[in-house]
Amino acid sequence: MSTPPSSSVPVWDWSIRLFHWSMPVLMALLWYYAGEDMDKHMLFAQILISLVLYRVIWGFIGTPYARFSHFVYHPRHIVAYLRASLTPQKPVYLSHNPMGGIMVLVLLGGLLLQAGTGLFATDDIFYTGPLYDYVTGDTAEQMTRWHKRWFYWGMLVLVGLHVCAVLLYRLRGENLVGPMITGRKQAPAEQVADRLPGHTGFPWLRFIIAAIIAWGAVEALFRL
Q1: DSSP code of 96?
Q2: What are the E-state strand segments in 6-155?
Q3: What is the pTM of this model?
Q4: Alpha-carbon separation of residue 125 from 38, 136, 140, 216 (angstroms)
């Protein structure tokens, strides 16, 4: 039985890859400096929130495979994908597959919740978040509890699920890590379910606009 021909397709632009690999690094730095050096903790938090906001904006105006409209699917498509994925000829998606699209939204939401609660948190001694004065003491206490416990452990669970999913796909013959390094994905042409017309160049103007909006909004937030 011959192997189906495959082609290398540019999928992930450099900003998506930078965002993806920055997240585990920033989360590790935030954990390391929490309670030790809050100035650095807040600096890394500001960078992380800016990157997440950039990713959200890029999901609307970015390169084709990075857009939410390309990998957020109707529930019936998700069910169909789950059924088809059990077959030997499971469909291959150049962008996130229907389940991967859900995970992207959940991870982005989890990061925003974790970072957002930190904006209201306090250690009751030296540190208060930039939005601490805008809520009651009871609310700040609740936000602090969520930030330190529930959402923190929730993020670890989500990251663990993400890693397990990547390993599972690797065992089934689909490499998700390589394309997030090189930006290109190798896939049998007849199995690809979401191929787009070729795109030329990187949209630098849209990138600059998204970056300025993201960093400017977070900078203003931290100056409140």
Answers
A1: -
A2: 6-10
A3: 0.92
A4: 12, 17, 14, 29
Q: What is the dihedral of CA 194, 174, 91, 185, to 10 degrees?
A: 20
Q: Name the residue among 61, 44, 58 with its Cα closest to residue 104.
A: 58
Q: Which of 211, 196, 218, 190 is nearest to 67 (CA)?
A: 196
Side chain identity, residue 40? K
Residues 56-98: tens digit of each pLDDT: 999 999 999 999 999 999 999 999 999 998 887 788 899 999 9
Separation CA 30–CA 143 (nearest Å): 17
Q: For the chain, give percent helix, strand, coil, nearest 5.
A: 65, 5, 30
What stretch of H or E contains 113?
Answer: helix 98-118
Tokens of 49: 């929130």
pLDDT in tens, 133-191: 999 999 999 999 999 988 889 999 999 999 999 999 999 888 999 999 999 998 777 77
Distances from the Cα of 221 to the Cαs of 49, 52, 74, 178, 224, in angstroms?
Answer: 10, 14, 34, 36, 6
What does the alpha-carbon distance between residue 178 and residue 145 come to, in Å, rounded to a whole number?
38
Cα 76–196–173 angle (5° rounding)?
Answer: 70
